[in-house]
Design a protein that fits this description.
The chain has 404 residues and is α+β, with helices and mostly antiparallel strands. It has 3 domains: 175 residues, no CATH class; 62 residues, Orthogonal Bundle (Arc Repressor Mutant, subunit A), CATH 1.10.10.10; 135 residues, no CATH class. Helices cover 36% and strands 17% of the residues. It contains 14 helices and 13 strands. Strand 4 and strand 5 form a beta hairpin. The chain is globular, with a radius of gyration of 23 Å. InterPro entries: AlkZ-like. Pfam families: AlkZ-like. This is Winged helix-turn-helix domain-containing protein.
Length: 404
């Protein structure tokens, strides 16, 4: 079957499925749509998981995530990375937990004696953080991989499903026994191979609209045969459809009942580097022409765009990125490097025939960008923002005037 949509239309559909085009009424309903929100510890600005939710929920406050954990509508576990997930998907976390219980390895070899001691103490005393366990003063101190034995044990028990995260205390996990955290009504039946594969497929396609096998199994090992079989069955049953992308010859799957959004607002979204829409960099580059890489892990001399650059999505185009940092002492959001793509404001470069030259102008972009920056500044508890550098002189002048 031929591709039913253009790249621009696929981006519009992805934006719609990702909850960017319509406000969500609640955090649980949004998380259900997204399937997960990745947790990240970097805090040069507000943390990634809060930013992703802020981008989609009007009046989002970081306390809402704590409340959702307290209400037990959300839980922590591993998706392709550490994540918040909807509690109704809990039983599908049991698939990985069972594998670990049966000897599969996560990060390190289990130390069963320490695990028994750690679990016994939590059983007797209640919820505890890793910092509440004694550290052997003679143990080697070093990198993240040199965790003390108790912390390794806590994480292993968590990954195997014997412990859950009851809450976070200043970003530290507070662990408790699963039976004391998990609501009584939650189904704890371990899904079959087929159920788990279908769950991953449907969750991904609901959240993104379309994707190939590699994208659906993103950072999950050993699932290719199961997913291949489930995808074929779902296509045969008419639950999903497929097409072959002519340049790569890759088969893509999609939901057949999608409806294109009627309008795309003149709005700027400042997306987090770990945002669900941009986390799969190769798909972003191939389909939407945006070659994005987070440079947190790149040595400083080799960085092109800055430590923590946010992708800038304007209407239905990725037009640039901005490296941000909060000066918390002065309550100022620093736009350390604002960089626009070549042809970002050229109608000739646009794949959207509806947008005119005027609607793609800098004069149309700047007010929407200022609104997004103001909103993002407030979210970061900043009273003002400051542009440091910009590769577009005309926009730089307009923004310098706006931030005075």
């Amino acid at each position: 079957m031929t591709n039913p949509y253009s790249p621009t239309q696929w981006l519009q559909l992805s934006m719609q499925q990702q909850g960017l085009l319509q406000p969500f009424g609640s955090l649980p309903s949004l998380l259900q749509q997204l399937s997960y929100v990745q947790i990240d510890s970097i805090n040069v600005v507000e943390r990634a998981h809060h930013h992703v939710l802020h981008s989609r929920l009007p009046h989002y406050a970081t306390s809402m995530l704590d409340e959702a954990m307290g209400d037990k509508t959300v839980f922590e576990y591993w998706s392709h990375a550490a994540a918040y997930l909807p509690m109704e998907d809990y039983r599908f976390s049991l698939y990985r937990k069972q594998q670990l219980q049966q000897g599969d390895k996560h990060w390190f070899e289990p130390e069963h004696k320490v695990m028994r001691e750690v679990k016994a103490r939590i059983t007797a005393e209640g919820p505890l953080k890793a910092s509440q366990f004694k550290h052997n003063a003679d143990a080697k101190a070093g990198t993240w991989w040199d965790w003390k034995p108790a912390k390794k044990a806590l994480e292993q028990l968590f990954m195997q499903g014997e412990l859950m995260v009851a809450k976070r205390d200043k970003f530290q996990k507070v662990y408790d026994l699963t039976e004391r955290v998990l609501p009584n009504h939650i189904d704890t039946t371990v899904p079959s191979d087929s159920e788990f594969a279908r769950h991953l497929i449907k969750r991904y396609l609901v959240a993104h609209g379309f994707g190939n096998l590699q994208q659906i199994q993103y950072l999950r090992k050993g699932l290719k045969p199961l997913l291949t079989q489930a995808l074929a069955q779902l296509c045969e049953q008419g639950d999903i459809a497929r097409f072959t992308e002519p340049h790569t010859r890759q088969v893509y799957f999609y939901l057949p009942n999608l409806t294109l959004p009627s309008t795309i607002p003149n709005k700027v979204w400042l997306l987090n580097p770990f945002d669900n829409l941009v986390i799969q960099r190769q798909k972003l580059k191939q389909w939407f022409g945006f070659d994005y890489q987070i440079e947190v892990y790149v040595p400083e001399p080799k960085r092109q765009y800055g430590y923590y650059s946010l992708p800038i999505l304007w209407r239905d185009r990725f037009v640039g990125r901005v490296d941000v940092k909060t000066d918390r002492k002065n309550q100022c959001l620093l736009l350390q490097q604002l960089h626009f793509e070549p042809g970002a404001f050229s109608a000739e470069e646009s794949k959207n025939e509806v947008l005119s030259k005027e609607s793609l102008s800098r004069d149309a972009f700047v007010p929407a960008f200022i609104e997004a920056i103001n909103h993002y500044s407030q979210f970061n508890d900043c009273q003002r923002w400051q542009l440091v550098t910009c590769n577009d002189k005309a926009i730089g002048k307009m923004l310098h005037r706006a931030c005075k």
